Amino acid sequence: MRHNADFWIIHLRLIDHVEGGAFRETYRSSLMTPKSVLPEGFKGDRNISTAIYFLLKEGQFSAFHRIASDEMWHFYYGDTLEVFEITSSGKLITHRLGNNPGLGESFQCVVSAGSWFGSKIVTGGEYSLVGCTVSPGFDFNDFELADRDELTKQYPQYTELIKQLTKSENAG
User: Fold this and answer.
1) Among the four given CATH numbers 3.90.1230.10, 3.10.20.320, 3.50.50.60, 2.60.120.10, the one describing domain 5-170
2) Within the chain, where are the H helices?
3) CB under 8 Å, gap of 24 or more: what pairs does 166-169 form?
């Protein structure tokens, strides 16, 4: 029997995420890295690593955002998730998280620190349950939600995708 998205939201105790979808932090390392040894862009000391569950339902998306750390995504259950990464050099990479390598899907992908990224379920999918591991650990002080107009000015070649994966209230 295939569980629906609400089953996972209830059983994993997920809550709404500012970028879209639902999440719950599952791990935060007690080991710390001082800001003095971290690259530019970090606004304070950071835990070595953090991890979350993350779920998107049909019609939801994870809005374009960026963080100061690398983020590894892990596929757990449901339908294929596309993670769109715009690198600092402007290259668009589409990661397909899923369980069918014959269709170009993989169980893991990494989004590089400083890249803009967002995600959505493939057309026809009901939901996708994934996880994200961040190192140095995630902190909302390092989180930047994209402004639609600013991101479009920077990457006009991706205008339609940016429109799909940004929230209108963040548009300038």
Assistant:
1) 2.60.120.10
2) 5-11, 148-154, 159-164
3) 166/63, 166/64, 166/118, 167/20, 167/63
0.85 exceeded by pTM? yes
Whether residue 101 is preceded by a cis peptide bond, meaning omega within 30 degrees of 0, is no
Residue showing tokens 């809005």 = 63
What's the number of CA atoms in the CB half-sphere (13 Å) around residue 168?
0
Mind listing the pLDDT tens digit for each residue in 25-72?
999 999 999 999 999 889 999 999 999 999 999 999 999 999 999 999
Tokens in use for 29? 């390392």
The residue with tokens 């140095």 is 136
Q: Where are the domains of the chain?
A: 5-170
